[in-house]
Structures are given as C-alpha cells and as structure tokens.
Amino acid sequence: MTPAPPQVLTEVAAGLCLLFILLVPFAAAGLAAINAGLGRSRNAAHMILSSLCVFALAAVVFFVVGFAFEGYPGGPAYEFIVRGKSWNWIAANHFFFRGLPLDGSPASLAALLGMMSVGLAAIIPLGSGADRWRLGAACVSTAVFAAWTYPLFAHWVWSGWLAHLGTNYGLGQGLVDAGGAAPIQVAGGISALAVTWVLGPRRGKYTSERMPMAIPGHNAVLVLLGCFLVWLGWIGLDCAGAILFARAEVGRSVLIVVNATIAAAAAMLAVAAITRIRFGKPDASLCANGWVSGLVASSAGCAVMPPAAAMIVGLVAGALVTYTVELLELHLTIDDPGGSISVHLFGGLWGVLAVAWLGKFPEGSASGQWLAQLAGVASLLGLVLPLTYALVRLVNRFLPMRVAPEGERQGLDLHELGAGAYPDFVSHNDDFLQR
C-alpha cells in the first residue's frame, strides 16, 4: 500500500485548526465538573484534582512515547503483508516529538490534538470509578492507556489498516470517524467499564439482595454547567479532527458545529421526555448524560451527515443512555456514578455504526461502508476491550486501585488530600446506608 501523501494546509486553515484544538480542554473541564457533581460532596476536590492529574500525565506520556506509536496520516509506519495486502499497524515516529517540526504543519497539529484527545479520554474512566478510585492507581492506569492503548487504536482509525479498508478491500471510505468517537470516546468508555469491573460497586450501593440504592449526586448545578463546557470543547474536537483526519475543508466546520449542537439538543430533549413520561418529572443528571451522549454519538459522522441525520443520531443516543444506565445498574450490578459507560461506550458505538446508515458519501463510494464501520466496532470489542481489561487487572495486582473502606467512608478529599472541597459545610457520611 502506498501511504497517502502528507496533507497540506493553508495558513488560514492551520490557524483555524489550532484555534479549534485550543477549545478541546473545555471538554475536559466539562467532564471533570460533571463527574464531580455526580459524586458525593466529600469526594469533589479529589475528582477535580484527579481529572487535572490524569489530563496532565496523559499529555506528558503521549509526548514521550504515545505520538511515536500513533503518528499522523501519511507519516512513517510499520507494515506487514497479508495475502498481498499491506497492513499499516503502528507508527514509526521518534519519542519526545524528535524530528517533528512544531510549525503549524498538519503533523504538528495532529500531535497537539493527540495530546488534548488522550487527556480527554483519560478523564472518562474517572466518572465510573468515582468515590472509590485511588489517585495514584488512576495515574498509573492513565500512563498505560496513554502510552499504548490509545495511540495504537488511534493509529488504526486515522492512519492505519482501518482507515485503509476502502483502499485495500473496497469497503467504502474505510472507517469514517472524523471526531474520534472510536479512539477517544469508546476507548475511554471501555476503560471505564474495565475500571468498574475491577473496583466493584461503592459501599452501600447494593443491598444484600443486590438491589441498587439511590446515591444522588451532590451538585446538579455543577453537572449542568459542565454540559456547556463540554459542548464548547466538542465543537473544537470535531472541527479539528475533521480538518486533520477527514481532510474536510474549513468551510465544513459550520456543518460540524450545527450537527454537534443538534445531536446534543435532540439527545437531551429525548432524555427529558422519556424520564418525564416514566417518572413524572425530568431527571437532571440523566438529561446531562443525554446531552454529552448526543455529542459523543455525533462525533464519528459530524462531517458527512446532514443535520436531519444528526438529529436522529441524537434522539437514539438519548434513548440509549436512559435505558443502558438502568440496564447496567439494576440488572448487571455495574456501579457507574458518572454514567461514563452508557454515555461514551454505548453512545460512541452507536455513533460509529450510524455513519454507515446516515452518512452522505459521493456517488458510488459508499459500497461496503457498513462493513468498514463494523470492523471498527469489532476491533474495539474484540481487541481493545480484553487488552484494556487485562492491563487494568495487571495494574490492580501490583497497585491496589480501590481505596480502603475507611477512606471511602471518610471521603477521598480528607483521606487522600487532607482537606475537603467544602470546609464550611458538613459533608454527610453514609453510615446509615446498609453495607
């Protein structure tokens, strides 16, 4: 296989792409606020600090080794031949960004976006491990994720064999994922699932009969404010990804912003309607999760879908997050305080598959697109999921991930940081809950 020629951007396009990338940290701040608000008050400072720590560590590890494995479209890579077909499986760049000109070129912008994206993906599991995940263990898991899991799969999606399924096997355009629904959102959601499996449910979450007890978040205002920050960051993420990886023209950014906004709005309204019908009142935390799930689901096809299709994607994402939260908590006894698995794993998978159904492609070039998108999903569930779970179990074996029972009862703010987020208020413990 002949690699695609390196992309060339005009100065205007490069400047706008840089501006879009600088918006991505708003998404990280929004997810951190949502996760903190959905947890207990005595763990709020720990959640925000954990978010900052994992974002920083992920960026540093990506700088040291991650980008060497992810690379960029048209960059050097290792390949092997299977039945006459060349499979590009991992990049061959230098560590520490050596040899990479940081001059606004597509390669340098891809490296910068990768630093932001891996940090965003690393924050996702914190929501599922809320109220019980030790900061040190979270940092070690993040280092493994940023050094290997994320770069490897991101390379497959944007530069490697999944991206070239169209060239090699005539499967449409190859895997289409402009905004990183698969390598960022689903990979982060898979990590969240693995962390939740290893940690187990929070103390007092389930009765002796395995029935879930309600543990509401402590600050709905913080959660809903986080939605606005996430929306702003997602606009940057999707636009930058489409320009760099889908080779979209700058003018298509308007369509991308419209699609992201419509999908988020439709998903949130769907959740509000469903919870209003089922429970008599709309549920604020589920509405927030629906908003983010709409953004997640729109990411893959943000540059190739008409707005009406984005609305359908959002409506389905909203319904999906509502019922998967119940499925995980009630029937599978998976305790996910932040809804990270429902929002990012299920929402992202739906978004990747929706491209094949609802994406608009040039005449005659969409044949086999369904199989290309399905190959991406199969890689996530068949390779990334078991790899991530094995790595998380390995980390837990050498560095126990769950805080001691006394620390969970006292609160992670005091137990691990020595100070609470709200020193002038009483953070109630849960001794009244059944163990």
Major sheet attributes = 2 strands, antiparallel
CATH class: Mainly Alpha
Ends: how far apart? 59 Å
- Note the overall shape: globular
Helix and strand content put the structural class at mainly alpha
The total domain count is: 1
β-strand number: 2
Features:
single chain; 435 residues; mainly alpha; Ammonium transporter fold; two-stranded antiparallel sheet; globular
Descriptive account of the structure:
The chain has 435 residues and is mainly α. The protein has a single domain, classed as Ammonium transporter fold (Orthogonal Bundle). The chain contains 15 helices and 2 strands. A two-stranded antiparallel sheet has the order 1-2. Helix 2 (24-38) packs antiparallel against helix 8 (220-245) and helix 5 runs antiparallel to helix 13. The longest helix is centred in the C-terminal third of the chain and has 30 residues, at 369-398. The chain starts with 10 loop residues before the first helix and ends in an 18-residue tail after the last helix.
Q: What's the layout of helices and strands?
A:
Layout: H1 11-21, H2 24-38, H3 44-70, E1 77-82, E2 85-91, H4 106-128, H5 135-158, H6 165-169, H7 181-199, H8 220-245, H9 253-279, H10 284-299, H11 307-331, H12 340-358, H13 369-398, H14 405-410, H15 412-417
Antiparallel strand pairs: 1-2
In short:
The protein has 435 residues and is an all-alpha fold. The chain has 15 helices and two strands.
